Each structure stands twice: as C-alpha cells, then as structure tokens.
C-alpha cells in the first residue's frame, strides 16, 4: 500500500493477460515522485 500498488496478477499468468495488464498499467502511468517513496523500506 505504501507504494500505491493498484493491481496484481495471479499465477499462472498467460501471455495475453500479462500483455493486457502491462498495457493497462502503462495507460494509467504518471510521473513518479521519488521523494514520496524515499523512506519506504523494501524487505530483502
């Protein structure tokens, strides 16, 4: 949630579903404010 994730894919992913998901994500893409996420810790 801290990274504004707004979708997910359930395995197994078909090539068509992956292409559609990527196209949808790219259509809604916005500029990323890296300062906003600078303090988010991503577990290793």
Topology:
Layout: H1 15-27, H2 34-37
Task: Name the features.
single chain; 2 helices; flat
Describe the structure.
The chain has 44 residues and is mainly α. The protein has a domain at 1-29. The chain has two helices and no strands. It is flat, with a radius of gyration of 13 Å.
- Rg, please? 13 Å
- Strand content bin: under 5%
Poorly predicted segments: none
Helix-strand category: mainly alpha
Number of helices: 2
Distance between the termini: 17 Å
Query: How would you sum up the major sheet?
Result: none
Q: Would you tell me the overall average pLDDT?
A: 82
What's the helix-strand series? HH
> How would the global form be characterised?
flat
Helix percentage: 25-40%
- Counting DSSP E segments of at least 2 residues, the number of strands comes to 0
Short description:
This protein is an all-alpha fold. The protein has helices at 15-27, 34-37. The longest helix has 13 residues, at 15-27.
């Amino acid at each position: 949630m801290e990274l504004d994730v707004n979708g997910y894919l359930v395995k197994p992913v078909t090539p068509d579903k992956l292409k559609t998901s990527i196209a949808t994500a790219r259509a809604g893409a916005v500029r990323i404010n890296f300062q906003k996420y600078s303090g988010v810790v991503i577990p290793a």
